[in-house]
Specification:
The chain is an all-alpha fold. The chain contains eight helices and no strands. α6 packs antiparallel against α7.
Amino acid sequence: MLGFTVLDVAALAFFLLAWFGYYAAVELTKAGGKSLNTIMDGYRYRWMAQAVIRENRIVDTTILGALMNGTAFFASTSLIAIGGVLALLRSADAVLPIFATLPFESAVTPLMWELKVIGLAVIFVYAFFKFAWSYRLFNYMAIIVGSIPVLRADNREEAEHVARQAAAMNAVAGKHFNRGQRAFFFSLAYLGWFVNAYLFMAATACVLYVMWRRQFISDARLAASVGSGRVEGNG
């Protein structure tokens, strides 16, 4: 099929299964409730609970600025990566002879090369949309934060409601940012396919393990959950 072997198709299927399986495990199952992402969502709600009682919210706007700057950086990086990948489409004649000298490289036709490059471009386009949307959501959150009334005896329900809205928007923005970063990680595994299918599968397995470890058994997860049992998100 288009010059790809059964092993190539199997490696691509394994890659897609790993990506969507990891997404389902972290975001759709009960096991995902124990992930670092979920724990940090709990801190997003705690952050907004503290913002309610602050009249001066310079701290909150500073944190928001840092989140938006980081998201903008990754969105810009995605555009640069897309440009670099598209440049590869015109370099098949120069690149294929180099890959042919690799000891484990399987035969690659110009059509196969172009299809692999297009696949990599799709990954970076997906990442760009996730980062760009996350940046926009952090903007929305900033607007909601600006509308949180200072907590008083006569407006507790309203203030806490708006704070929960801000925290929920924060969590959604963080979710899309995480998906963009996930695409970056899996793009590294995808690069193995340019060598051969075996390296593609091995790289996918390594990336999957590293991401799973960081979410469920890393020092960062322990640091986020220690001292307060576990901090759960509210949505």
